[in-house]
Amino acid sequence: MKTLFKNLKFRLLFALGLILFGFFYAFGSGVIYTMKKSQERSIEASLTAYAKDLQHDYIERSGKGQTIDFDELKEELDEVKEEFDIPLLYAQLLSYKIASQEPTIIAKSEDLKGESLKLKDDLIQNILEAPEKIYFSESKNRTLTKNKIYIGTLFLGIHENQMLLLQCAMPYDKRTPEIEKMKEALWIGLSLLLTIVLLLASFLISVSLRNVQNVTNAVRKMGIQDTHKSLPKSYIAKEIDDLIETFNTLLGNLQHAYAQVKQFGQNASHELKTPLTIMQGEIEVGLRKERSGAEYQAILHKINHQLSHLHEVIEKILFLSSNTKNELIKHFSEIYVDEVLLEVIEEKKSVAHHRGITLTLDALEPFSLQSNAVLLKMVFSNLIDNAIKYAFENTQVHIALHVKRLSIENEGIGIDTQEMAQLCEPFYRGQKSKEYAKGSGLGLAIVKNILEVHHARLHFSRTEKNTTMVSIHF
Question: What are the pLDDT digits (tens) for 70-116?
């Protein structure tokens, strides 16, 4: 049973069945209740008409000053029954002494067969408060009928200091043949309707779940290496198509990430392998024969240079792989961008001077930013380093800081337009940059990651003077 309840289709049908059963049961009960009330109103109308007719005769006689003949009233109990064509009618006249609170039966209809109708004590109080109304009650008398008896009690008047009351009643059964037939018809009809609705719902749910199953089967057959596959829409249910579209978006992101990780691994392997190969070669050269101290120093210098490059690459790889956006934001505070930029420019002057390049600060507009000084310094250092590295000797690098915008412009080898979109990918280096200067291809990838945390954009362009401009829009 637990396994069955884990089935989505069964749970949906079970819930729908309960809801519909409750609705149909309430509807059927409402119909039966209405029929019973209608039957009660019909009996009340008949008893009221009967009682009012006898009341009218009594009032007419007493109004003319005639002596009340109870034998005539007794005859009228049965005559009025014939007049109204009532098959079975129990009626009796009562006199009620208020002082002794004792009812006395004056006359009975033939249908009572020696029995009498009950007079409840609370009826007397109601009659005294509103004598013009007729009061209805229920009673039982197994001698007369196995059904309930519906009684109407009406005040006729005062006779010899006694209350004269008329009680008329009819057998009353809430389970009449008509009501029983209606119950049976409702049970059969509503059960049949419930079955049809559940069968249709089962079919529709099966069709919907079949499409979900098709999506599941298609997903199972897919691998992350399937970089060009996606799930086709079903065009049956909007919810399923939304699910497919969401999955396709996620799959596209995963495929792109997989391709990037794969390319990153290949590039990282190449970048790490190259200095290791160089170092291995230098060590092998040094071990072939005895060499002078100067030669050993030259070999060690080369190895040290490659170790520095290897260390730099590893540090950048670790930064890209271990720092998440949330971790970086935790260390943010209000930083003055102009102060960080001036510090970086001062540090880079000696590097620029070595190549005969002048760092020119064209504009410096102070403004603050929620950031981290170390991260911001990494961004400025990488961009200025690249500007110096790829600029022609004895030229100028122009730096301008405006509010929410930094631009760095140099005259150098330039960037091919088709390569601009790939410059920030890890380990990517343009053909010109490979030939002109050494590098790891990780600097701009780090810059991009840091700027994304700041919700800033990095933009590359060629100016009218045929210079290269890198700009940051904060």
Answer: 666 667 777 777 777 777 888 888 888 876 677 888 888 888 888 88
Among the listed residues 398, 383, 338, 384, the one whose alpha carbon sits nearest the alpha carbon of residue 365: 338
Contact criterion met (CB below 8 Å) for 234 and 211: yes
Which burial class, exposed, middle or buried, applies to 32 when counting CB atoms under 10 A from its CB (0-12, 13-18, 19+)?
A: middle
Q: pTM to 2 decimals?
A: 0.45
Domains of the chain, residue spans: 38-178, 238-321, 325-473
Tell the CATH topology of 325-473. Answer: Heat Shock Protein 90 (3.30.565)
Signed CA dihedral, 284, 285, 291, 297: sign only? negative
* Residue corresponding to tokens 């929410």: 404
- Name the token pair of 162: 């006694």
Q: Residue 305 corresponds to which tokens in the numbers above? A: 């240079």
As beta bridge partners, residue 90 has: 169
Rounded Cα gap, residues 203 and 207, in angstroms: 6
- 458 contacts 448 by C-beta, under 8 angstroms: yes
Residue 171 has a pLDDT of 86
Q: What angle do CA 125, 129, 130 make, to 5 degrees?
A: 115
